[in-house]
Amino acid sequence: MVKAGVLLAGLLGAAPLFAAVPPAPPPAAQQPAVPWSRLTPQQQQILGYAHKRWDKLSPARQQHLIHAADRWEKMTPAQRAQAHTRMQHWRTLKPAERRHIRQRFQAFQKLPPAEQARIRAQFRAFQKLPPEKRKALRARWKQMTPAERDAVLAQWKQQQAKPMPKSTGPGNG
After folding, report:
1. What local confidence, expressed as pLDDT, does residue 13 receive?
2. Does the model's pTM come out above 0.70?
């Protein structure tokens, strides 16, 4: 069980990315440019920072920002605060860290839906652990060599392939 927790700790680097991902806008080839004047007042307010360069953005980027503005409008104040905090954190990351997170996200997106759901469920279970336990698991994961991490992941995958007895599980063993 601890080794599975260590795996979850390793996945934390991309934790915000494992949240439910909304559907992407249509492919760029199908996206026409959108004049600023065609945006709703709410979209213009949310995207005001991009007003001066709006016409220079590609149609795909415009559509992406419109999609993001629409999602922002539907968020609760708590969700907006959380998203704002995550965006601030993202801006503090070095380019190499951002690239690593993007690569991990792309790899996650290529997993079968059942595997994605399983990882999300395990991450939610990890989040429910006491902060001290999560911190200890993260520290242990960071101290491991790549070979040790690979060994833990291989063992964990083998354990996941076996059906788990009903009497064991989180908090029961």
Report:
1. 46
2. no
- Give the three-class secondary structure for 163: coil
Q: Which of 152, 166, 161 is nearest to 1 (CA)?
A: 152
Smallest Cα–Cα separation from 144: which of 1, 6, 4, 5? 6
SS3 42: helix
Positions of the chain with pLDDT lower than 70, given as ranges: 1-29, 162-173
Tokens of 27: 């492919």
pLDDT of residue 12: 44
- Decide if 125 contacts 1 (C-beta within 8 A): no
Closest CA to 135 of 33, 5, 1, 4: 5
- Cα–Cα distance between 30 and 26 in angstroms, integer? 7
Coil, strand or helix at 91:
helix
- What integer pLDDT is reported at residue 32 of this predicted model? 84
- One-letter amino acid of 97: E
